[in-house]
Design a protein that fits this description.
globular, disordered N terminus, Methylamine Dehydrogenase, Chain H, single chain, four-stranded antiparallel β-sheet
């Protein structure tokens, strides 16, 4: 049988993508075979009968090589990973390669969070909210009119998003609505302990506390130092910010004590992530990477000078960081390696 011709463009309903002759009957008489795409299924048309052959699957595209600023990264408990950034960029980790998905908007995404089962949400400029479902992204009606900077999920249908001018949006039963806010400052980060408890940080150095579904202004403050990110995992919490500020909560489930921890840098830190109990990483401007272990932060040689905007650790042994110019870094074998960008 001769090879089918190369095809380009989307498949159309009932389109013949191959025809040829084959001795499939074993009788020695050639039989004409048509491969037909119909309703997303590749089928064999043989002797007037349509025999299903295979359902079309999305193929893995080429590795991302763009230069858009990448601002957020998230992994679900099942290992699914996504990156979000400027111009609606959404990248999916497939077989170890970051490939670009179809974007539902050109707005910049500032935050992304995933839940198990392939669900997720991304938020961004102008109040943009996009939902991941069935492997595809779509925008949904947003109650916010200002930029949303971060999002955190308790499940696929429960969570919170925060943004400029003190904006707080609640996700309940899969629907977003505005919630009362105790501040007018830009809220830059949010992390949840449960669906009804968590913390958020502001650009003015304030902390907000979520308890029983209500946000209040915490008496704890690091004003006027801008706070950029907050992260919970493994029962611990970290906050980072301007001038290398790093703050630790050793037990977010039972305590409200946040302790300043010297980071040995004055660089703006944009993101922090827990790798394991007693271990964390921070990322910031000029490619800054810091490693926390045995009670202290240590600067680590970085393969980039680009500003790093987000970091995610899957374990002590593996992690990812992203930032300006499309830079993507991978941590494995105790080394950070540049995958894309400058």
């Amino acid at each position: 049988m001769s090879s089918p011709p190369n095809q380009s463009g989307p498949a159309s309903r009932g389109k013949v993508i191959y025809h040829g002759r084959s001795n499939v009957t074993g009788s020695g008489w050639p039989v004409v075979i048509f491969l037909v795409i119909t309703a997303g299924v590749i089928a064999v048309l043989w002797r007037g009968h349509v025999l299903p052959f295979a359902r079309l699957q999305a193929t893995t595209g080429p590795a991302y090589t763009g230069t858009d600023t990448l601002r957020a990264i998230s992994f679900a408990s099942d290992g699914q990973g996504w990156i979000a950034g400027d111009n609606g960029v959404l990248l999916h980790l497939t077989n170890g390669t970051w490939t670009q998905a179809v974007a539902p908007t050109r707005a910049a995404f500032n935050g992304i969070a995933l839940a198990a089962g392939g669900a997720g949400w991304a938020v961004g400029d102008g109040g943009t909210i996009a939902q991941l479902s069935g492997g595809a992204w779509k925008t949904v009606v947003s109650p916010a009119k200002v930029s949303l900077n971060a999002v955190a999920l308790a499940s696929a249908t429960e969570g919170w998003a925060v943004g400029d001018d003190g904006t707080i949006a609640a996700l309940h039963n899969g629907i977003w609505s505005l919630a009362p806010t105790p501040t007018s400052e830009n809220i830059t980060g949010v992390a949840l302990i449960s669906a009804t408890s968590g913390w958020a940080v502001t650009a003015g150095g304030k902390l907000l506390y979520l308890q029983n579904g209500t946000w209040t202004l915490s008496p704890i403050s690091f004003a006027p130092t801008p706070l950029t990110s907050i992260s919970f995992s493994q029962g611990e919490g970290w906050i980072c910010g301007s001038n290398g500020l790093l703050v630790h909560n050793a037990s977010v489930n039972t305590g409200t004590t946040w302790t300043l921890t010297p980071g040995n840098t004055k660089t703006l830190l944009n993101a922090v992530a827990v790798a394991a109990p007693g271990e964390a990483w921070a990322a910031g401007d000029n490619g800054t990477l810091l490693h926390y272990l045995s009670g202290q932060w240590t600067p680590i040689t970085s393969p980039t000078s680009a500003n790093l905007r987000a970091i995610a650790m899957l374990s002590s042994a593996e992690g990812w960081a992203v930032g300006d110019g499309g830079v993507i870094l991978h941590y494995a074998n105790s080394t950070w390696t540049k995958i894309n960008g400058s």
